[in-house]
Specification:
Blueprint: H1 5-19, E1 23-29, H2 32-47, E2 51-57, H3 62-70, E3 75-79, H4 86-92, E4 96-100, E5 113-115, H5 129-140, H6 148-157, H7 168-180, E6 183-189, H8 199-205, H9 218-226, H10 247-263, E7 273-279, H11 289-301, H12 305-312, H13 316-342, E8 347-349, E9 353-357, H14 364-378, E10 383-389, E11 394-400, H15 409-417, E12 422-426, E13 430-436, H16 440-454
Parallel strand pairs: 1-2, 1-3, 3-4, 4-5, 9-10
Antiparallel strand pairs: 6-7, 8-9, 10-11, 11-13, 12-13
The chain binds manganese (II) ion (MN).
Residues 33, 80, 102, 128-129, 158 line the site of manganese (II) ion.
Amino acid sequence: MNIPEELDVLLGEAAEKFRDMEKIRIVSHYDADGLSSAAIVLAASLREGKTVHLSIVKQLRPEVAERLKKENNENIVFTDLGSGHLSLVNEIGADNTLVLDHHHLSGKLNSGVHVNPHLVGMEEDTLSGAGVTYLFARKLDDKNKDLSALAVVGAIGDIQEENWRMNGLNKEIVKEAEDIGTLSRGEGLRLFGRLSRPIHKSLQYTTRPYIPDVSESESGAVQLISNLDIDLKNGDGSWKKLVDLDKEEKKELASAIIKKRVTNGIEDAGEIFGNTYTLSCFDGRLQDARELSTSLNACGRMSQADVGILSCLGDKDALGEMKSVVRGYKRTLGKLIRMVRNNDDMIEDMDGFNLLDGVGKIPENFIGTICSILQSDISKDKVLMGIAESVNGRVKISMRVPDDLDVNVGEIVGDIEETMDIEGGGHEKAGGAYVLSEEKDDFIGMVSDKIDDRT
Ligand SMILES: [Mn+2]
């Protein structure tokens, strides 16, 4: 693997520090990347015979730092968070601190080892939090290479692919997982739920790539297939899934999708194909790395991170429970999406962005996901900003940027953080912050100015 030398040095320092630790406090982020990271570092720690105490948090907020400080931990390892809150990490002041993260940097770690691809000038979307954590685990011991598939799941969760294709170190981690036999990469139609959903449902649920008249329309999806020579059902009466189609049928379906797109002015045929990842260590729908990633995300949002992490490690009970967590999550999300769609007045057209006011209506764990889903629906050339009520007198503000708009919200939040009491973080296309309720309007105004500067 081509790990940049500077990064490799940091990984070596982190591994060395880790070897001396006995009792380890681990803190990770609650999204799919964070839970994958947690599973990796947990497995690696247990293999080394360490005693661990793991917590999953939404963000490294002051009250979390306060709690960690009171615990008087000798050793703390942060995964998929920390880099954006180094002053809080410094305040906690554990004897030994490791930060294994990939978020935007804010401040400097006073003591300990900080591993982040930004420190060595790497591209934003070539390594996830789980990727950094995996490279660390692998540096610790070669036997941890069997955890590589989880790093792929984390990268998918953080949408690090470009049109379903990995780049940079992510791509090399995929290769490593293939070599070791835990994952097989394929090339296929970029349809949702290829191993698990009836084809018409796969078509209906696929919004990227967009299929005119078919995306988000069950009748449109059924219509598209009924015009083809494809039976919707298998010989045994069960619904056919994408994986059940033979080569000819797949070809026919691909041509039909391309035709639909071309007749609606979308010329890029190649965009409907991408990489698929099948995980050999899981059964059923979780064999699809994309579904595992979605399921982890659901566990985090439903405050059942433990179910997700243990599932990653192959725990049978957890795997069973994960199904019902995912069902509950989908029900909740569906209800909230319908509510926003049916209430036009929840979205306000502001100067430079659209504002979705979910205070009192949308739980903070869902506001980011809802913005992601609705962003391209609401406007293809404006940032969507969502607001939800949080704790400790704060609101959570989430922002999502359309693909073709040149605005970096991770940077904007970072800039604002220097002058205002917020707890922010994020990446180029997705970011957010916890803002004091009474300063909400100031924050929105600052974002608006900064979007103006950049567009
Ligand atoms: Mn991440």
